[in-house]
Design a protein that fits this description.
Blueprint (H helix, E strand, L loop, with lengths): L2 H6 L22 E4 L5 H9 L3 E2 L8 E3 L4 E4 L8 H8 L3 E5 L3 H10 L12 H12 L3 E8 L2 E11 L2 E9 L4 H15 L4 E5 L3 H5 L3 E3 L1 H11 L12 E2 L3
Parallel strand pairs: 8-9
Antiparallel strand pairs: 1-3, 2-3, 4-9, 4-10, 5-6, 5-11, 6-7, 7-8
């Protein structure tokens, strides 16, 4: 990120206000603002508008709203034949919200090709753990032989889920958690999962890009359902 980009975006004031997402830069795609903090109030205000933090250690907090937006509707989940076969095996258990911070740390520790370091800093882990304690952030975990083998975490507001990151220590463990997450979202009438940016992996599971304006229109309805936040409990058995 160059100094020129920082000069082109506003620095957030002390209050929670964000500029309209439509003011985000085209290059880098979606960069909207800098500064502020990672308080629960500011994070929730950001997510309600389709804005999320993404920055590296040593940078100011950077806020993004890319266009187009990668999303997955729960009913559009695609499961390959090989993944379906894996899901039918009985050697795993899927749990909800039983190891949230461990999932975040594992996501932070996972090497990703072409990525220098991680954006999941200690400050990010502390901030999202606060959201988890307030009932807004959740993890879905795949356990094999009593060990955390893979998982995904994200933020839920109303009937909107924002996927943040996933990891696996065992082949397909993150995909297993992902599928069970989507089934959970379907059962509980969630309308959409935000995947933020396009990846071939997410596209293979049924995610697609939509214009930011369309995303914002859907978001405005979904986040305003009165479903109370709270811990996701229980576990799923193999399918």
């Amino acid at each position: 990120m160059t100094a020129m980009h920082f000069l082109m975006i506003p620095w957030l004031p002390a209050d929670i206000a964000f500029p309209p997402p439509s003011q985000a830069l085209r290059e880098p795609n979606g960069l909207l603002a800098a500064g502020g903090d990672l308080s629960p109030e500011r994070l929730l205000a950001a997510y309600r508008l389709g804005i999320f933090p993404w920055y590296s250690e040593g940078q100011p907090i950077l806020w993004w709203s890319p266009d187009p937006r990668m999303v997955l509707l729960p009913a559009e989940l695609r499961i390959s034949r090989s993944l379906a076969r894996r899901l039918r095996k009985t050697d795993y258990e899927v749990r909800f919200d039983s190891a949230f911070t461990k999932v975040m740390q594992a996501c932070a520790d996972t090497y990703r090709l072409g990525q220098d370091g991680t954006w999941i800093t200690a400050d990010i882990i502390r901030a999202y753990t606060q959201l988890h304690e307030l009932g807004f952030a959740h993890s879905v975990e795949t356990w094999i032989n009593g060990e955390l083998a893979g998982g995904i975490y994200g933020v839920a507001i109303g009937r909107m889920f924002y996927g943040e990151s996933m990891f696996h220590h065992v082949t397909d463990a993150s995909k297993i958690a992902f599928v069970h997450l989507m089934k959970y979202l379907q059962r509980n009438n969630f309308g959409m999962m935000d995947c933020q940016m396009k990846t071939l992996h997410l596209a293979s599971l049924g995610a697609r890009e939509i214009p930011r304006e369309e995303f914002a229109h859907a978001l405005a309805k979904l986040v305003n359902y009165s479903d109370a936040p709270g811990k996701w409990s229980g576990h799923d058995t193999p399918q």
